[in-house]
Amino acid sequence: MICGLFDINAVIALVRYLSEALLRRVESTETGSLTISSVVAHELHFGVYCSRIGFLPQSWN
User: Fold this and answer.
1) 3-37, pLDDT tens digit by residue?
2) DSSP assignment letter at 34
3) Can you tell me whether residue 36 is helix, strand or coil?
4) What gap in Å lies between CA 2 and CA 60, rounded to an integer?
């Protein structure tokens, strides 16, 4: 059963080990009970794609 839905900031904090408390909470959660939305998945994909090609949209400058 899904009991947690991460936003983009939480995923980035986990990937970069920015929050020890969040990491401990995730580690103590039952496998398969946390997820991300398709919007967050797309944001991650877009961010990785842009960083690989060195692209920063004009409006972000």
Assistant:
1) 889 999 999 999 999 999 999 999 999 999 999 99
2) E
3) strand
4) 34
Q: How far apart are CA 5 and CA 45, in angstroms?
A: 18
Residue 13's closest CA among 46, 53, 51, 40? Answer: 40
β-sheet bridge partners, residue 6: 36
pLDDT score recorded for residue 61: 54
Q: Each residue of 6-19: b (16+ CB within 10 Å) or e?
A: bebebebbeeeeee
Nearest to 13 by CA among 4, 22, 5: 22
Distance CA 50, CA 23 (A): 26
For helices 8-15 and 38-53, angle between their N-to-C axes, nearest 10 degrees: 60
pTM, whole model, 2 decimals? 0.72
Whether 56 shows a pLDDT value over 90: the answer reads no
